[in-house]
């Protein structure tokens, strides 16, 4: 039986754990003094002393990054000699995790918010030599709540964070502005929300189901001289929108680099 220790079990760690417990037969133990609401069969300890002599195959860090340096060293002795460290912490480099545990295999998982409803996209990065069994296992866990993309450098994981990790924030803001604009056209707040979220959901599902490129799908709904063409000209006539999205991702990536 694979034994997994989850260090920190808050919003993201707790959501991932639910998916892992429901979709694998591993033995999970949570180390978190907050006594979170746990899936059936998952054990919980408030401190490393409560673990006794137990040893684990995987230690998965789901703490806030600023706590890792203080908390992780206490738990490392509870990892088997062949054990692997994984982490979902944003802005805490694999190289720093490896410094805490020289010689250990380290795999970072970068989930994004929709993972809490099993619809995330996660980046995976294996730091240094990692056994095939460990990368397969971490991939299997990530797939419980998300699609996955492997990257081959920490820099690419920072780029992935700028695209997908921070992505839900951009999408919420775009939706908010879209709803606000609908209200300005005369709709109530509730009607605006229904119109915008319904339009976005339907359009997204169409795009996911279609073999056409996004550009072709857009062309197909844009008749020359029509309303969509007028709206699109205002949105991106001089490519201002494309440039804005480019600057958005670049700013998030640069911040990820600063946080390394
Ligand atoms: N939320 C997201 O969308 C998201 C996305 C990608 C990555 N992440 C990463 O996921 C990690 C966790 O984020 P989160 O949103 O789940 O944070 P969170 O809700 O604050 O969860 C962290 C948990 O760790 C617990 N904790 C604090 N001190 C501890 C200790 N000494 N030993 C064991 N557990 C301790 C906290 O308990 P208390 O609450 O009592 O302090 C809390 O339950 C972060 O590194 C973040 O970068 C989050």
Seen as an oligomer or otherwise, the chain set is single chain
Number of domains: 2
Largest sheet: 8 strands, mixed
Shape assignment: elongated
| Molecules bound to protein | NADP nicotinamide-adenine-dinucleotide phosphate
- How would you classify the helix and strand content by structural class? alpha/beta
Task: Please report the number of helical segments.
Answer: 10
- Name the CATH superfamily classification of the largest domain: NAD(P)-binding Rossmann-like Domain
Helix-strand topology string: EHEEEHEHEEHEHHHHHH
Mean pLDDT: 96
Helix content: 40-55%
Given as residue ranges, the uncertain stretches (5+ residues, pLDDT < 50) are none
CATH fold label of the largest domain: Rossmann fold
The CATH top-level class label of the largest domain: Alpha Beta
Name the beta content range.
15-25%
Strands side by side in the biggest sheet: 3-2-1-4-5-6-7-8
Number of strands: 8
Could you characterize the architecture of this molecule?
- By secondary structure, the protein is α/β, with parallel strands linked by helices.
- The protein has helices at 11-23, 65-75, 94-100, 132-143, 154-165, 167-184, 189-209, 214-220, 227-236, 240-259; strands at 3-7, 27-31, 43-45, 56-61, 79-87, 105-110, 120-127, 146-151.
- Strands 3-2-1-4-5-6-7-8 form an eight-stranded mixed beta sheet, sandwiched between helices.
- Helix 3 links the parallel strand 5 (79-87) and strand 6 (105-110).
- The radius of gyration is 22 Å and the shape is elongated.
- It starts with a strand and ends with a helix.
- The protein binds NADP nicotinamide-adenine-dinucleotide phosphate.
- NADP nicotinamide-adenine-dinucleotide phosphate binds at residues 7-13, 31-34, 62-65, 67, 71, 88-90, 111-113, 165.
- The site of NADP nicotinamide-adenine-dinucleotide phosphate has 24 residues, from helix 1 and helix 2.
